[in-house]
Amino acid sequence: MVFQKAVHPAATRAYRDPEYRHPALPGNMQRDNFAIIVERVSPRLGVGLAAAHAFVRLAAMTRPSDWTSQVRTPFIYAEAGEVAKMLGLSQPRTRAITAELERAGLIERRTAANGSRSRAAGTGLYFGAAIARVDELMALDDQLTEERQRAIFLRGQRSTAKRYLKHTLERLSEISPYCSEAAAIRQAAAAWPSADRLHRMDLATLAAHVDEADQLCRAGLDLLEKREKTSGGPLENERPYIQDTTKESSVSCNEPVDMQSAGKPAQDKIHVMPPDGGPNCNEKNVDAASGAFKSEFIARLGPQRLFNLASPEMQLYLCGRAEPEYLRFYDFVWAAERRVPELGISPDAWNTAREVMGEDSAMLSILILDARKSEPGNIIFKPGGYLRAMTDRYRRGELHLIRSLIGLSERQRAGHG
C-alpha cells in the first residue's frame, strides 16, 4: 500500500473558506517580496531548494496586481507541459515539485476531470493558499532572521575562544614545552569542528560547542597562570593599574539627545555623540592619549577597576566567571560579545568595530556604551549607530577611550556621593 503525504490545510480548506476567497498581501508588500520570503522559510516548511526556487519562478508568471487584489487570486492556467517548459524541467519533475508545494500549503492545484487547465474553467495553479498564510510566513521569517543573527554571534564567540587559546598555547610552549596538560588541551582544541562545519550546526549544537570552547580556553588560561607563577613570569592580573588620573581637571560633555531617534535603524545617522563629547568639548584636551591602545596597556587598568565601571548587566555576566579581582581580559571580551546582541547591535557593526579598532578597543567601546546607555539625561536610543560613530571617530584618531573610562569613574563617584 502506498501512503501519500497529507496536503496542508491551507491548500484545501482555508483557501476555499469564503473569508479567504481572495486573500491579499498586506500593506506595501508586493508579489516578488513575498516570494522571496517564501523561498527563505521554505526549509522550515519541508520544501526543498528546487521546489522553493520553482515557487519564485511560478509566482513571477502571475500578474503582480492579483497578489494585492481583494477580488482576484493569482494563478497559472497554462497546461502542465507548458509550465514544465517555462521552468526548464521535465513534466514528471514539474509534477513532483508542484505536489511538494501543495503539500506545504503554498499552492493549490485545480484541474478538470481530464487533468486539463484553463482560465475559463477556473483550473490551474492557485497561490491564494500561500497568501492566506502571509502572517505566519512573515513571523517565521523573523524567527529565522533572529536565529541567523544568533548563529553569527556564536560563531564569532568560538573564533574569539580559538584565538585566545592559540596565543595561550603558544605562550605555554615557550615557558613549559613539555607540559602534558598543555598537550591535552592542544589535542582537544585540534578536534574542534572547522568553521565550515559551524555553519551547518543547529543553534543548540553550536551553543553547546561554544560553551565547550570557552571552558577549554579558560582551562588553558588557568594553566598558563599556574605555569607563569612557577616560572616567575608576569601574570596578567598582577600588572600594575594605570595611574589614576581622575583627580586631574576634566570636563564632562553631554550633548543633547535627539528624542526623535527612537525606533530608527541602528545604521541611521546618529544624533548622540560618542562618549568623548562633541567637537567643541574641552574634555578632549585633558590628555593626549591615543585611542590605539595595545593589549598590554589596557590590561594595566586592572580587572577590578574595569568591573566597577561596567553596567549591572555586564557585571552579572562577569560575576559568573570569577571574582572581580581575578577576571581576565578574555572574560571582559566574552561578556562584551554577549552584551552586543542584547543591546540590539548588529553583527556587522560589532565586526567592523573589531576590525577597525582591534578587539581591545572594541571591547572597551562596548563597556563604555553599555555603562552610559542608562545614564540620566544620556539615553542612547540606537546603540548600533552609537558604536558605528565610535568606530568612525577611531578612524579619525578622535576616540579617547581611557579618558572616557575616567569620565565614567567620575560620574559614578559623583552619583554615589
Explained architecture:
- The chain is mostly helical and 417 residues long.
- The chain folds into 3 domains: 9-132, Arc Repressor Mutant, subunit A, CATH 1.10.10; 146-233, no CATH class; 259-416, no CATH class.
- The protein has 17 helices and 3 strands.
- It has helices spanning 31-41, 49-59, 80-87, 91-103, 128-131, 134-175, 180-190, 195-200, 203-231, 295-299, 303-309, 312-319, 329-342, 347-357, 359-372, 383-395, 401-416; strands spanning 75-76, 108-110, 124-126.
- It has a 3-stranded antiparallel sheet, covered by helices on one side.
- Mean pLDDT is 80; it is low at 12-20 and 236-294.
Taking the alpha carbons of the first and last residues, their distance comes to 82 Å
Adjacency order of strands in the biggest sheet: 1-3-2
Number of domains: 3
Number of helices: 17
Strand element count:
3
Range of strand content: under 5%
Biggest sheet: strands, sense, closure?
3 strands, antiparallel
Along the chain, the helix and strand elements come as HHEHHEEHHHHHHHHHHHHH
List keywords for this structure.
417 residues; mainly alpha; Arc Repressor Mutant, subunit A; 3 domains; 17 helices; elongated
Helices and strands in order:
Layout: H1 31-41, H2 49-59, E1 75-76, H3 80-87, H4 91-103, E2 108-110, E3 124-126, H5 128-131, H6 134-175, H7 180-190, H8 195-200, H9 203-231, H10 295-299, H11 303-309, H12 312-319, H13 329-342, H14 347-357, H15 359-372, H16 383-395, H17 401-416
Antiparallel strand pairs: 1-3, 2-3
Domain Plasmid replication protein C N-terminal: 26-170
Protein name: Replication protein C N-terminal domain-containing protein
Organism: Paracoccus homiensis
